[in-house]
Structure formats: C-alpha cells, structure tokens
Design a protein that fits this description.
By secondary structure, this protein is of the alpha/beta class. The chain contains 29 helices and 34 strands. The strands form nine sheets. It has an eight-stranded mixed sheet with strand order 4-3-5-2-6-7-1-8, sandwiched between helices. Strands 9-16-13-10-12-11 form a six-stranded parallel sheet, with helices on both faces. Helix 7 crosses helix 8, helix 9 runs antiparallel to helix 10 and helix 12 runs antiparallel to helix 13. The protein is elongated and about 145 Å long. The relative contact order is 0.05.
Length: 840
C-alpha cells in the first residue's frame, strides 16, 4: 500500500540493540523474503554495500540503488536500496525498513529520519532498526509497533590507551576531520607501512578499493571518520579513537556516549569479540570511567525527543512553503528541527524579487524547493552554495526548464583531470557529486541518461585517481610486504648477509650487521627504519647465534682491550669493563647488542670474556690479581692484608708513608711473600717495577679509569718529568720532587746508593754519576735526600775540596710520620662552625 496509507494494516516491528546484533542482516533477509521492498540507510556507502549483497541474491535487473548522486533503476526493479532522503515514498512495496532510526535525534538530518519513522510503511511489513535508546520514541510515536531486542553477538571491551605505534593489527583509528585522518594515516605509513582511508566523502568506488586493501591484508590498519559507525562491515578487531571531540556543523563538542558506542561497536564481527580504546591516557581525548562502563554494557541515555519538519510541505507559494517548513510540531516528543541548509538557501533566495517572480504556481515552487535541496557536497558554506543554487534555479525556471548543455559540459570538463594531490582530487570528487546529483534529476536536463553516464564515468576516474593517490601517500608497499612476510613466517624473509656484513632483503639494501648490531643504511628513509630493524632482528637471529657461538670459544688473540675498557672481537665492541669489587676484579658488562642472544649463549660468552680478562690481567699486571688474592687470604695477618689491599687499590704504586704502621708490622716472611709476587717495599714507595713498562702501564691506566680514577700514561722510557706534565704524579709511577717528578724505581735506586755509600752517621758524598745519568737537577736531588732521611753536612776544612754543588750528607734517621691536613674551604660548613667557635 502507499506509504501514506493506513499504517495499521502493516505489521511494524522495531528491532533495537547495539552494534553487531545482526539488525541490518535481518532486514536484508526480510527484504529478500518479500515480493518487493525498500530499505533506507543513513549513508550512500552503506546503501551501496547492501545493494551489492542483494544483487548477488536477486540479480541486477530486479534491484535498484537510489541515492542523491547515484541511481541504478532497472525498469523491473522490485527491491530498492536507498539513502533515507532518497526513499521513494510514493512507491508501494511489500516490505519497508529504516536503518539507524535513532538518527532522528540528529540536529542536521534528524527530521528526515523522523519523517520516515512516522510516514514510511510497507504493505505487509515495516521494520524500524535502531539503538536501544530509541525505545521511548517508538512507544510514543508508533505505539502499535512490536519491539524486539537484539543482544550483541560478541563482547566489546575497553583495552585502554595505546600509542599509534603499539596498536594491534586489524585496528581502525577514528578521527573527525579530513586533516586528522590524513595525519594519522601518514603516521601509520611511517610506523607500520601504511593504512587504508575511509571517509563519508569518498565515492563508493574509492571507499571499496580502500577497504579491499584492508580486507585483503595489504595493510593492517584503517583510518576512518565516524562514517564507519553506521554499519559498514569490515574485519576490525580494535577501534582506537584519535579524538573524542567533533565539529557537528555548529560547534566543537564531545561525542555522546551513544556516538562512542556506535563507533566502538565496529570492533569485533559476529561471534568474535572486539576492543576499543583511545590514543591518549589523559586529557580531552581520553575516555572517562563512566563512559567506558556505559559503552561496554551498552547503557545509554534514552532519547527524549526527535527532530521534526513537515514531510508534506505546502507548495502553494514560496511563503507558504517556508511557513510549512518552519511550522512547529504539536507538544510532545517531537521538536522543531534547526534550520537546515536547504531551508536557509530557500529563505535567502526568497529575498530575491526575480525568484519570487518566477516561483509562481505549485510546480515552480516545487522546482525551487528541489533546487534548494541540492546538497552542499563541496562544504563551501551558505553564501557560495546559495549562489550556486541561484544559478541552477535561474536556468531551471526559463525556457524548457533544462540546464544549458554547454554549461554542464564545461563544468564536467573542468573537473575531468587527474592531476593534483589527494586533497585536490577529493575536492573534484565533491564537486562531481553535485553534478551527478543534478544529472539524476530526470527533468533538469535534456538528456539526463547521457549526463548521468558522463558524471558516473568522471567520478569513477577521479575515484581511481584518489585511490591511487591515497595508496601512494599513505601506503609503503615495500614496507607492508615486509610486514606481511614477518607476520606470516619470519623464516621465509629473504634476508642475506654479505661478506662485509651488508644486509639486504629482496635485493633491497637494508644496512649492515657489525658484530651483533644491525644498523639501517643511511640512505634508508626514516619512515622505514623501525620496520627494517624488526625484520632484521627476526631474520638475523641465526647469524647472530652463529657469531655468538664463535665468540664463546674465541682464541685469546681474537679479543682486544681498548683504551677506555672496551673489549673488541673481530673489530666490533662486544663488552666493556666496569668498576668491580676491587681494582683487579673489574666487572664485565656485555654490550647491549648481545641481548639478541639466548640467555644460555649469552652466559657462555660472558664466561669466555671474563676468563680472557683474568688471563690478560695475570699476563700484563700480574701483581694486581696477586695482591687481591693476598688481601682476601683469611690466613694472612691483618698487617699483610692491609698492605696488600691498599697497594692493589692504588694500582700497585703507593706511598709508603700512608701505610707506614702496617708496613712496619710486617714480618720478614710477609715481606718475602710480597717480594715474591713482585711488590717492592721501597724507602718512600711500594711498587712493582713491571707496572712502569708501557704495556703494563696502559692496562693499569685502563683499570684506574674504569674505577673512575683516570691517570695519564707517561711517555714510554721517561725517567724524569717536569712538574705539570701529564703523568708527573705518583699514581702514574712518578714521585714529585720540587720542580721535577722522578720515576719511583729510580728513586729507590738512589736511596739504595745513598745507604750503600754512607758509613753510620758520618758525612758522605753520594755517587754523582747516578743522579746525573737520571737527569736530576741539584734542587731535586736535595729534596729527595731530605725525604730519604738525610741532611746536608756543615761544610768544614775537611770537605773544602768538594765542589760547592755537591754537598756531603749525614744520615739523620727516618723522619717521623707526618699527617698533612688541608685547611677547609672558606665556604665549608665546618670552617664556618670553627670561625663561630673562635668568635665565641
């Protein structure tokens, strides 16, 4: 029966529930079960998707698609898939359904869905599909309707906030502007190889091509606007919100809980559970706990009103038309719709005298209203769109009432170019949709079928160009190919390691494997580096394990020790030394690049390198490990352990005065034990002369630097250094004496020569040849003799024949121990306390 006929004779069923309840699938089954039918959808994309499904069942000759800018209308069509605005309400059909009927609460389009809810009926069956929030409106407006509740097939769970780089595969990221969609897609291309893009403004051809990439696994991510919330079927496991705010045409606002659920509900399919989340944990882009609970449990505020505008306006005159469109509904659950674009354009044109002169009579008023109904696909705002509609009506209201052939052709030709970036081509498609909409008005063109075909071809070409542009801009096919291979089976990834460590995949140079570290090639794009590292890490495990096994049994000659304590193997750093329990027992730190090895193999490498370090120390600085053993010998006397421990801590060279008490307490056997390991107990210092050799001095310097006490290595073969020259310190084996620093073993030689030359406490003259050969200045020698316990003898007649520069010396005994205390710094707290005490 007619849609405006007796609704009581049609069985009306309201199927309510959250997303993924099979409501649309049920409606399609019921449609196909009737002799004829219509379903109205909220989106052109969804209408096209269901049209393809019904064509597969009923055949193309019996199925029609009617949207604003696309009409496929076979002469014998019995089943119609339409947008809500394009539903042919004057056609009698057996079954009629309205999808997403809760959109009656939408300020912009709500009046259309409310009108269909109130007036559109099938002869035998009418089905209203929507969310549970619509229940009160159905009870109030369609009281005879049977309400059927449909539970969700799968569970929808909040998965928390995840960064884009950590999103799971088969995720859809939802944004609320084209700019944000493109930004997210670009980021996914850099991080994960690419993403498909779906927006309501895309043509079905572009949208299908993009979705096919996602469905086929060519990309694992989809970036979309909230258009995917309206029933578009895609294999999405997780929905991530890039934002929770959107511009609704009037203001920027936060999504309602129902809108969040509608979008999040795209996650999961049939019996497979889904998850949703955000990209941030805090701020306006994060979910509130109460929002999460409401979405998970599908609990939303019930709708309390729907927007309404007369679906049967008065076309008697322009003023009557405006008045009927602005008429308020009767008190109740219906609310007058905000002024939509078509009404705003009509009111602007009504102020033009020429429009009123031409819009006389019902037919011409209807024609004016039809022109005002051309959607603003280009989103150019009210004034530019009004000028466009004004020009349309100007042509439609003169002569034959047809648009000029040449004007239409010129506009189509202007858009028929595939050059430009994604935004430019998308803009052309939006403009082409306007002309496609016009071409499908049978009475607006002299040859509408020709122009409908021309605009369809133009949109297809632009759609293909847009798909190619989106793919080129947001998909790196080489990267996604690697991702697919890695995800399927890393062992099949053709990674090749060359003789010099160069790494390539399918003849693409990725980088180098130096030791255990894979470095991406410098000429590789930064966007690829993370993926290439992942690919190499997975596929190069075998090569790294082979190298690790070789290192675990490496010959001693294959490992070297660098000047800063790094251990190198094959020219590559594999470990370093760190401060350990004592100087001779440094800690071995494996390089982080070896973390790629299994724990057992890594421990074998550690044990081999620790053995190498021990062997190296015993070969080059044997006294230090030996001193460490003595210091830990529980059977040794306290004095011996103190001396050994202090000497090891000093790197095998230390002043005797600092440990004088312990040295004096050593027994002859203990002194012999120290000499046996190479330690010399000198008059002024304790040392091992072997540590003064260049190679041993270098190893000793490394150990000191590792502990945090760096010391300069003196020049090889140096005996005397000037004060201030690097290495002219006791820690480096040189005792400072006045303006010079003398090597400690030479200091000991001079001390022994002096004691051998003296006889008791009688004045004596040291052998001058020794000091001269060393290069000591007279002042340096005098300072040394004084520190050794000698004093200059008073010159008398008996020594008058001695040269003035060569004094005789007298033994005065070992000087008493001195403890030098440096004064505190002026800003030291104890200095201030001391000064305060003096004032007191």
């Amino acid at each position: 029966m007619n849609a405006r006929g007796s609704a009581g004779e049609s069985r009306v069923t309201a199927v309510l529930g959250p997303t993924n309840t099979g409501k649309t699938h049920l409606a399609v089954e019921r449609l196909c079960g009737h002799s004829s039918g219509i379903i109205g959808f909220p989106l052109r994309l969804l209408a096209r998707e269901v049209y393809d499904r019904v064509v597969a069942i009923k055949g193309p000759k019996q199925v029609a698609l009617i949207t604003g800018e696309e009409k496929i209308l076979p002469p014998d069509a019995r089943w119609f898939l339409c947008t809500a605005e394009s539903m042919p309400l004057d056609r009698e059909v057996s079954f009629l359904a309205l999808d997403e009927a809760q959109l009656g609460a939408d300020p912009e389009r709500g009046h259309v869905f409310t009108d269909r809810l109130l007036r559109a009926r099938g002869r035998e069956e009418t089905m209203i599909l929507g969310s549970e929030a619509l229940r009160p409106m159905v009870r109030a407006l369609v009281p005879d309707a049977e309400i059927v509740e449909r539970p969700r097939f799968s569970t929808l769970t909040y998965a928390g906030a995840r960064k884009i780089s950590r999103l799971p595969k088969r995720s859809a990221i939802v944004a609320f502007s084209a700019e944000e969609v493109y930004a997210v897609a670009e980021m996914l291309r850099r991080l994960r190889g690419g993403a498909a893009v779906v927006m309501g403004a895309l043509s079905p051809r572009t949208r299908n091509a993009q979705v096919q990439m996602f469905q086929a696994g060519e990309v694992d991510y989809l970036v979309a606007t909230d258009a995917i919330g309206m029933g578009l079927n895609m294999d999405v496991a997780h929905v991530a919100f890039a934002s929770l705010n959107k511009f609704d045409g009037r203001r920027q606002r936060r999504l309602t809980v129902a809108e969040m659920a509608q979008i999040a509900g795209r996650a999961g399919r049939h019996q497979r559970d889904g998850t949703f989340g955000a990209l941030v944990e805090d701020g306006p882009g994060a979910f509130l706990p109460e929002e999460v609970l409401a979405v998970e449990e599908h609990r939303f505020p019930k709708l309390e009103q729907l927007y309404w505008r007369s679906g049967e306006p008065d076309f008697g005159s322009v003023d009557a038309l405006i008045a009927s469109l602005e008429r308020r509904p009767e008190p109740g659950v219906l609310r007058g719709a905000p002024e939509a674009m078509d009404l705003a354009v009509l009111k602007r044109l009504a102020d033009e005298d020429w429009v009123r002169d031409r819009a006389r009579g019902t037919a011409m008023v209807k024609r004016l209203w039809a022109a005002c109904g051309v959607p603003d696909f280009r989103k150019v705002s009210l004034d530019p769109h009004t000028r466009f509609v004004s020009r349309l009506f100007g042509h439609l209201s003169e002569k034959q009432g047809h648009l000029p052939h040449q004007w239409f052709a010129d506009e189509i030709a202007r858009l028929d170019t595939m050059a430009g970036d994604v935004e430019t081509i998308a803009g052309r498609i939006a403009a082409a949709r306007s002309w496609a909409y016009i071409a499908h008005r049978a009475d607006w063109l002299a040859d509408p079928a020709h122009w409908a075909e021309r605009t369809r071809g133009l949109e297809e070409r632009l759609s293909d160009a847009l798909h190619a542009g989106l793919t080129q801009r947001f998909v790196d096919k080489r990267t996604t190919a690697l991702i697919r291979q890695i995800g399927a089976d890393a062992s099949v990834l053709p990674v090749v390691v060359g003789a010099e460590g160069e790494v390539s995949v399918d003849d693409h140079h990725l980088g180098r494997l130096d030791g255990f570290r894979f470095t991406v090639a410098p000429d590789a794009r930064a966007t690829d580096k993370r993926l290439l590292l992942a690919a190499a890490d997975k596929r190069l495990k075998g090569e790294r394990d082979r190298r690790g096994a070789a290192l675990a049994v490496a010959d001693a000659a294959a490992v070297t020790l660098g000047q800063t304590g790094e251990l190198h193997w094959g020219g590559h750093r594999v470990a370093s030394l760190g401060a350990g329990p004592s100087l001779a027992r440094p800690r071995l730190l494996l390089d982080r690049d070896l973390d790629c090895l299994d724990k057992g193999l890594r421990e074998r490498v550690r044990e081999r390198l620790e053995r190498w370090v021990g062997e190296r120390l015993r070969a080059k600085v044997a006294v230090l490990p030996a001193l460490a053993d003595v210091a830990r010998d529980a059977a040794a006397s306290p004095a011996l352990r103190v001396v050994a421990g202090a000497l090891e801590a000093a790197g095998g060279i230390a002043a005797r005065l600092a440990m004088r008490a312990a040295v004096d307490a050593l027994s002859p056997e203990e002194r012999k034990r120290l000499r046996g390991i190479g330690a010399t107990i000198g008059a002024l210092d304790l040392f091992d002369p072997r540590l003064l050799k260049p190679e041993a001095a270098g190893v000793r310097a490394i150990l000191l630097a590792v502990r945090g006490d760096p010391v300069a290595t003196p020049p090889a073969g140096a005996t005397v250094l000037a004060r201030g020259v690097p290495g002219a310190v006791l820690a480096a084996g040189f005792r400072p004496l006045g303006a010079q620093a003398v090597r400690v073993d030479l200091v000991e030689r001079i001390a022994r020569g002096a004691h051998d030359a003296r006889k008791g406490r009688a004045p004596f003259l040291p052998d001058p040849a020794l000091s001269v050969s060393i290069g000591l200045e007279p002042e340096t020698l005098a300072r040394l003799m004084a520190e050794l316990g000698f004093r200059a003898a008073v010159r008398g007649p008996e020594v008058a024949e001695d040269p003035p520069a060569m004094p005789r010396w007298v033994w005065r005994g070992r000087p008493p121990a001195r403890v030098t205390v440096s004064p505190p710094a002026p800003d030291n707290a104890f200095a201030a306390l001391q000064a305060w005490g003096r004032r007191g």
